[in-house]
């Protein structure tokens, strides 16, 4: 059996495709339990200034921005750990200049920052900075466990990848999970952000048919206006989700209004299982994102009778 993230290790239990409003509200609350958040070294400091910060133990993922020193990621992980969070630093294979630097980063993450997990991604750099063209090359060269890493988050691509076909992505995922099992690392998947839940649900069903049953954190954009969402969608080229966002684009009067990911949450809660959790990219600001997902987790919301909208209680 493939390793699973300990917090989500309950047996798989499919949810019904349709539900009464009360049941759906409970499913939404369950889906939002244990959500996680993405920050940059610069935006992490906002967690100290907001009125209702995340609960202790919340997973906070730290982006390694292109061209920025990895020391910023390490310092942010240390700050998050000191404030009671569970830091998950990004480790970008194509941004690693050499093997010695990689082992130094890992040692500093575990010893200085107290982190025991990383999100391993290939990265979007056109030219790799060192010996690692992808994540498998890095895993084949360095044992994460020997440097204190105990948990491994792996990027998931429900809408595919511009540089790899579906079969290649599936084979690579199986290889990474097998590596995690050999190294006795707890493993889970974290997806790119989605504006449409259907590609995620289709992808998740296909993985399960292949016997891949590991926890998945589904990437969603926090509340943001359509102009901001368009910018990120087009820059990342996330396939079917761009088409889903385009259908909303005709409602131009909403461009200035923050739009939480209501459609995605409703679809995931109606069709998902207990191995799915939510991971928020706060494009519209950390404060708005936290207020919305905390309200859903606490049950401070209502679903309309048509199951088309979620209203957060004031």
Give the biggest sheet: 8 strands, parallel, barrel
- Low-confidence segments, ≥5 residues, pLDDT <50? 1-19, 235-242, 247-256
CATH topology: TIM Barrel
Structural class, by secondary structure, is alpha/beta
First-to-last CA distance: 44 Å
Helix content: 25-40%
Count every beta strand, where a strand is a DSSP E run of 2 or more residues.
10
Number of domains: 1
Mean pLDDT metric? 86
Strand order of the largest sheet: 1-2-3-4-5-6-7-8
The number of helices is: 10
What is the correct CATH architecture?
A: Alpha-Beta Barrel
Strand-residue proportion: 15-25%
Shape category: globular
Secondary-structure element pattern, one letter each: HEEHEHEHEHEHEHHHEHEE
Radius of gyration: 19 Å
Protein name: Methylenetetrahydrofolate reductase (NAD(P)H)
Organism: Litchfieldella rifensis
Keywords: Oxidoreductase
Biased composition (Basic and acidic residues): 1-13
Could you describe the 3D structure shown?
- With 314 residues, the chain is α/β, with parallel strands linked by helices.
- It has one domain (6-298): TIM Barrel, CATH 3.20.20.
- Helices cover 38% and strands 17% of the residues.
- The chain has ten helices and ten strands.
- It has helices at 21-32, 70-82, 99-111, 135-141, 166-182, 197-209, 226-236, 240-248, 262-271, 286-298; strands at residues 36-39, 59-62, 86-92, 117-121, 151-156, 186-193, 216-221, 276-281, 301-303, 310-312.
- It has an eight-stranded parallel barrel with strand order 1-2-3-4-5-6-7-8.
- The model is unreliable at 1-19, 235-242 and 247-256 (pLDDT under 50).
């Amino acid at each position: 059996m493939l390793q699973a993230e300990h917090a989500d290790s309950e047996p798989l239990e499919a949810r019904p495709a349709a539900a009464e409003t009360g049941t759906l509200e409970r499913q939404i609350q369950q889906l939002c339990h244990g959500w996680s958040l993405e920050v940059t070294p610069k935006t992490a400091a906002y967690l100290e200034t907001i009125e209702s910060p995340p609960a202790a133990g919340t997973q906070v993922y730290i982006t390694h921005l292109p061209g920025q020193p990895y020391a910023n990621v390490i310092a942010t992980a240390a700050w998050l750990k000191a404030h009671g969070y569970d830091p998950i630093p990004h480790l970008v294979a194509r941004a690693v200049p050499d093997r010695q630097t990689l082992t130094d980063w890992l040692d500093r993450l575990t010893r200085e920052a107290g982190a025991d997990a990383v999100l391993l991604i290939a990265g979007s750099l056109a030219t790799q900075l060192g010996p690692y063209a992808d994540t498998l090359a890095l895993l084949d060269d360095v044992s994460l466990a020997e440097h204190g890493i105990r948990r491994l988050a792996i990027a998931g691509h429900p809408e595919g990848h511009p540089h790899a076909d579906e079969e290649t992505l599936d084979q690579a995922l199986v290889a990474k999970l097998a590596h995690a099992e050999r190294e006795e690392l707890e493993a889970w998947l974290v997806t790119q952000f989605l504006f449409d839940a259907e590609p995620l649900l289709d992808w998740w069903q296909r993985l399960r048919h292949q016997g891949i049953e590991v926890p998945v954190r589904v990437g969603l954009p926090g509340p943001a206006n359509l102009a901001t969402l368009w910018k990120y969608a087009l820059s990342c080229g996330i396939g079917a989700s761009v088409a889903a966002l385009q259908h909303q684009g005709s409602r131009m009067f909403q461009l200035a209004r923050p739009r939480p990911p209501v459609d995605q949450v409703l679809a995931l809660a109606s069709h998902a299982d207990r191995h799915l959790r939510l991971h928020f990219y706060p494009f519209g600001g950390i404060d708005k994102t936290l207020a919305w997902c905390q309200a859903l987790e606490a049950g401070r919301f209502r679903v309309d009778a048509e199951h088309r909208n979620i209203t957060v209680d004031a």
